[in-house]
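A favour, since you know our structure tokens better than I do. Go ahead and set the record down below.
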Amino acid sequence: MWLLYKVNVVAILLIIQLHTVLSDSRVLYAVNAGGASHVDSNGINFLADPISVGTESDFGTRLPIRRAAGDDQILYQTERWHEHSFHYTIPVHDDGDFVLVLKFAEVYFYGPDMKVFDVKLNDQHMVVKDLDIFNLVGNSVAYDEIIPFSIKKGKLSVNGEFSTISTQLKVEFVKGARDNPKICAFYLMKGNPEDVYRLPELTQEGSATLQPKTPTATAESDEDEDEDFPPNSDSQSSSSSQKDGGSSGARIGRKEVKSGRPADDPYKDDHTSLIIPIVISLSVFVPTVLFMCRL
């Protein structure tokens, strides 16, 4: 009886293991940028971030990420960003069709044209140009970039362009003139875009056309340890080779993020500050005069 029980337990474990292997068979490499290892709702095993360049941040854990399943929230809440361009290298040993999925969520800025950057493959192929996450989906909303490419006999083919590739694919997040490049997570799978696990469609709540919420002072001050504040337009470095609104850049100084029209001053027409000193002065002056008269 005990032997039969042990056999059943082993069989169950093997089935679970086999199911995991089968669900991951097309995914060749996956990383949770700026975070720990994690298995998502589709069974993809994301490795802990293997690089140390730049800054790893978990600022997004303060916010729920819309469009992301509960088990997948952490993939959009952690990130790696850098004040300069940075890259990951992905091992690729076979020929065939591939899809690179890059995961993003804007958890800091509350307006468009505040974080804009590019993504390159193998130093030659600009696969994502002028990426502005907030402009596409808004704040705290999951967003995936899906990049198909193929490799055949040492040649990388992407968007009709070709280059030589060995056994590593370089994915570079390119800094420009508006803030710093970042990545939340990514995975490489063998197949076509139709095979990719898709995020739910954008709802009205998650649409980037909605009026952005104004960040609180607490959220801004908490971010100090993770990222610097964005620069004023006067202090942004110009980039003549990039079109307006389509490049990323360094944050210069720590200045308040302005995401809309400044709030009206509630005390603008309030003259209380003038009346109170007058009342106090009269309350002291009148009794003094009366006292002197009695003398």
Summary: Residues 32 and 185 are 5 Å apart (CA to CA).
